[in-house]
Specification:
The complex is a heterodimer. Chain A contains eight helices and 18 strands. Chain A is an alpha+beta fold. Chain A has a six-stranded mixed beta sheet, covered by helices on one side. In chain A, strand 13 and strand 14 form a beta hairpin. In chain A, helix 2 packs parallel to helix 3 and helix 6 packs across helix 8. The longest helix of chain A has 16 residues. Chain B has three domains: 215 residues, FAD/NAD(P)-binding domain, CATH 3.50.50.60; 108 residues, FAD/NAD(P)-binding domain; 105 residues, FAD/NAD-linked reductase, C-terminal dimerisation domain (Enolase-like, domain 1, 2-Layer Sandwich). Helices cover 32% and strands 25% of the residues of chain B. Chain B contains 13 helices and 24 strands. In chain B, strands 1, 2, 3, 4, 5, 6 and 19 form a seven-stranded mixed beta sheet that branches. In chain B, strands 8-15-9-10-11 form a five-stranded parallel beta sheet. Chain B has a five-stranded antiparallel beta sheet with strand order 20-21-24-23-22, sandwiched between helices. In chain B, helix 3 runs antiparallel to helix 4. The chains are: A alpha+beta, B alpha/beta.
Chain lengths: 417, 465
């Protein structure tokens, strides 16, 4: 019997989500676990996977359109069923069904700061369809109709500026600004290719733009000697048993220890209150083929190094496969971003809201440093730059934290006593 | 503080002018309206409304004639033309008093005078018979809404006995036995319908190759067929080559015809020209092209402070277009940022028998845009309410954009379609797609169900045919 695929509750407090793309077309076979569509909330983009096999009978909510959680977005036909059965099923379906059948896993209602209610976007039916056809998100458009309603000309103004054709082209040089549809794109040069944004790219662009424009960042820099750290890592990895603890694993663990030591750094800013986090939930920035993602390791302060290391490895492999669940990359109080493996010696990172700080870690490199005996010595050091939300954290607290981190990393054994 | 006598002076009291005056007064502007003739303009006195009164008389006559079909025994009815004209004139008079009341209610000062621009913000007023002369005044903004009049063909000057234009026809002193209508636009076809219903033999001559040339080709064709079946003689793609007065009326030679047509009256409905003369435009930078004042999207002319709306500002020559321009013009003056009028979304109605209405692009216009279209039709012969009413002539046709589902045009012919077209007009204004139209619930039983069925038919999903 045909079933309705309903908009899943992709995370707590999210009442609606947008179908970004349908990965299956009407008539396509669907296996259990297949990604049927990509859905996007104001927080995240996730895969919408099927929990039953069949044939996609009918798409009820076209790509680019929003649907309330629990409303049917597609009809899944059982083998042998025809489209007529889909129509029969829909006939008995009220427009706002209770979310009885939820096809994707439901996020646990974790205690998190309440999310802002999604704002309803007013757009004419024609504008919605034209925007979907042009691959434009409605929230990137400015409405010029009555009461700011998005109408046809608002979509066409953007597509016309983008030199819209059947295969519109935006020069690659314009990509960093792609989060802002109002930026005028220069005409296309010969050979340039336009690659439409993935939903993930759009989300990254929007969130980083929000962060960089709304959070007053300040930056603290430190050089940390790594001889002791490298020695510790060597010894851990030569202990009996299969273990491959990375420098980054050690840094994540040290960051958690420093957050316990200086809890003033383990906070989040909200408009009406400061959230003091009880745990050190640390996001680890990872590069994937589709873009940056920051899965969160929870309660790092209580986890053993080996467990932490295994968890990060496991998250990384699922991140590359695009199989992270939204709750795995939401929340957190602090991010570690490490570009050391690419040879970058030093960089500053953009804070990942709703967190208040991010540590940018460079490569270990030999540097000439003052020696304890008053002379000079060449020693391996790692450069870190801490980006901090000044609304939540002042310079003195951040400096104290950075100093605690340095102490832990330079004398890791001290952390055990 | 302005030293002008008025913030806004409206020249002309038709459906453009009086609406402009009301909107201006609503917005707190000191407003005057100069009218040399009758408040309400042509629309109310010599156009839209009185013709509808006459056509209603024709409908009643037709209905009583066919009463037997409905199981009602009635004696053969007789048309009383003087009584019909008297009713029509009384209705015009009633509405004219209504406009006067609205002017008073809104605090608009009505000046019964001919207004001429004298340059800048100045206006000279010439008294009209029986009214005091107001002299000169100044206004910060002057809205010209003087309308248009029938285009008079050379050799066919109006005369109540033999050569009628709309004005003579509306006060017809007798029923012509044989009538030749020049022009098969809305006005010509409406008068042809009226006089034919009363018993005149009617010829219609149209230069264009089809009846109602502004309508969709399919509507033109079906209407021509319907009028021919009623007994009218249509001469399409044809000109009058020669006319000669006879004792009885006119002898008319038609292009390609070997013999002359003898008629009692020629009724000319060959377009209109804007009333731009005698306005003092020579004292201003206002430009006139093709007998109409040139304006921008907000009805501003080339002379700052001078505006033109309605028929004076060009086609389509429709009262509702004038009224909309009036509001846009005044709100623009008041700095309210109104939305310009989109000509493509103005509906047009012809109150012939059967009626015709459309909004948006014809199928041909839609196809010449270059992108694919979908067309759907539904005949009233398959609509339950139409069958019950005994009004099965005509159809609904919709033209949609293939890629976006946008409603590009809607065309209807049949009973009461002039009351139905606004459904599609609203849909078009709100940028509805086929999905929205299909999802809208149409009440049963109504003729408007044919609108939904026409959209379904465009997608091969018709449910009742």
């Amino acid at each position: 019997m045909a079933t309705l695929l309903k908009m899943p509750e992709v995370s707590a407090n999210v009442t609606s989500a947008v179908i970004v793309t349908w990965h299956k077309a009407e008539g396509d076979a669907v296996a259990v676990g297949d990604c049927v569509a990509e859905i996007e909330t104001d927080k995240a983009v996730i895969d919408f996977t099927a929990d039953a096999a069949g044939t996609l009978g009918r798409i009820l909510v076209p790509a680019g359109e929003q649907a309330q959680v629990g409303t049917p977005v597609a009809v899944l036909l059982a083998p042998g069923e025809t489209r007529a059965d889909a129509d029969a099923l829909m006939a008995g379906q009220p427009a706002t069904a209770a979310p009885a059948t939820v096809a994707a896993p439901v996020a646990p209602a974790a205690a998190r700061p309440p999310a802002a209610a999604p704002t309803r976007i007013f757009a004419s039916p024609l504008a919605r369809r034209l925007a979907a056809q042009a691959g434009l998100a409605l929230d990137t458009l400015t409405g010029s109709g009555p009461h700011g309603r998005i109408i046809r000309r608002d979509v066409e103004a953007v597509t016309a500026r983008a030199g819209a054709t059947a295969q519109p082209v935006i020069p690659a040089a314009a990509a960093p600004d792609a989060g802002d549809a109002r930026i005028v794109v220069p005409p296309q040069a010969t050979g340039d290719v336009r690659v439409p944004h993935s939903a993930m790219r759009r989300t990254i662009a929007r969130r980083l733009l929000e962060s960089k424009t709304q959070i007053p960042h300040f930056y603290l820099k430190a050089q940390i000697r790594t001889q002791a750290l490298s020695e510790l890592r060597r010894r851990i990895n030569t202990l009996p048993g299969e273990r491959h603890v990375s420098v980054n694993d050690l840094i994540v663990k040290a960051v958690a220890a420093a957050l316990v030591e200086v809890p003033g750094m383990n906070v989040s800013w909200t408009d009406d209150a400061m959230i003091q986090h009880a745990q050190a939930d640390i996001a680890v920035a990872m590069s994937t083929p589709t873009g940056l993602i920051t899965p969160v390791v929870r309660g790092v302060q209580d986890k053993s190094l080996s467990r932490l290391s295994a968890e990060i490895r496991e998250l990384a492999s699922r991140a590359r496969a695009g199989r992270l669940q939204p709750q795995e990359y939401q929340g957190g109080s602090f991010t570690v971003s490490n570009l050391g493996m690419y040879g970058t010696t030093e960089f500053a990172a953009i804070i990942n809201p709703p967190q208040s700080a991010i540590l940018a870690v460079g490569a270990i490199a030999p540097q000439v440093l003052p020696a304890p005996d008053g002379g000079m010595e060449v020693a391996p050091v790692i450069s870190v730059v801490l980006s901090v939300d000044h609304r939540a954290i002042d310079g003195a607290v951040a400096s104290a934290w950075l100093s605690a981190l340095r102490k832990i990393l330079e004398e890791p054994l001290a952390a055990l006593v | 503080m302005s030293t002008d006598d008025f913030d806004v002076l409206v020249v002309g009291g038709g459906p453009g002018g009086y609406i402009a005056a009301i909107r201006a007064a609503q917005l707190g502007l000191r407003t005057a309206l100069a009218e040399r003739g009758e408040l309400g303009g042509v629309c109310l006195n010599w156009g839209c409304i009185p013709t509808k009164a006459l056509l209603r008389s024709a409908d009643v006559l037709r209905l009583v004639r066919t009463a037997g079909h409905y199981g009602v025994q009635a004696q053969a009815p007789a048309a009383d033309l003087p009584a019909m004209v008297a009713r029509s004139r009384a209705i015009a008079g009633q509405l004219q008093r209504g406009v006067a009341y609205l002017m008073k209610k809104n605090g608009v000062q009505v000046l019964h005078a001919q207004a001429r621009l004298t340059g800048g913000t100045g206006v000279a007023l010439t008294s009209v018979a029986g009214k005091p002369t107001p002299g000169r005044l100044t206004a910060r903004h002057i809205i010209l809404a003087t309308g248009a009049r029938a285009r008079v063909l050379p050799g066919l000057e109006p005369d109540a006995a033999r050569t009628w234009y709309y004005r003579e026809a509306l006060a017809a002193p007798f029923l012509p036995r044989r009538l030749l209508v020049i022009g098969a636009g809305a006005i010509g076809v409406e008068f042809a319908s009226f006089f034919h219903a009363l018993g005149s033999q009617v010829h219609i001559v149209e230069m264009a190759a089809r009846l109602l040339p502004a309508e969709d080709e399919e509507v033109s064709g079906c209407m021509a067929e319907a009028l021919r079946q009623q007994g009218m003689q249509l001469h399409l793609g044809c000109r009058v080559t020669r006319t000669e007065r006879t004792r009885a009326g006119w002898q008319v030679w038609l292009q390609g015809g070997s013999t002359a047509v003898d008629v009692d009256v020629i009724l000319v409905a060959a377009g209109i020209v804007g009333n731009h003369q005698d306005l003092g435009l020579e004292h201003t930078a206002v430009q006139v092209a093709h007998d109409h004042v040139v304006v921008d999207d907000y009805c501003a002319t080339h002379e700052p402070g001078i505006y033109a709306i309605g028929d004076l500002a060009g086609p389509p020559w429709l009262a509702h277009k004038a009224s909309h321009e009036a509001v846009i013009c005044v709100e623009s003056i008041a700095g309210l940022n109104p939305e310009p009028l989109q000509a493509q979304k103005i509906p047009a109605c012809t109150y012939s028998y059967p009626q015709v209405a459309h909004v948006g692009l014809t199928e041909t216009q839609a196809r010449t845009r270059g992108s694919a279209v979908r067309v759907g039709r539904f005949p009233f012969a398959a609509n339950g309410k139409a069958i019950a009413s005994g009004e099965t002539q005509g159809f609904v046709k919709v033209v949609l954009d293939e890629a976006s589902g946008e409603l590009l045009g809607a065309h209807m012919m049949g009973a009461e379609v002039t009351e139905m077209i606004q459904g599609f007009t609203v849909a078009m204004g709100l940028e509805a797609t086929e999905t929205d139209l299909i999802q809208s619930v149409f009440p049963h039983p109504t003729q408007s169900e044919a609108m939904a069925e026409a959209v379904l038919a465009a997608y091969g999903r018709g449910l009742n045919r």
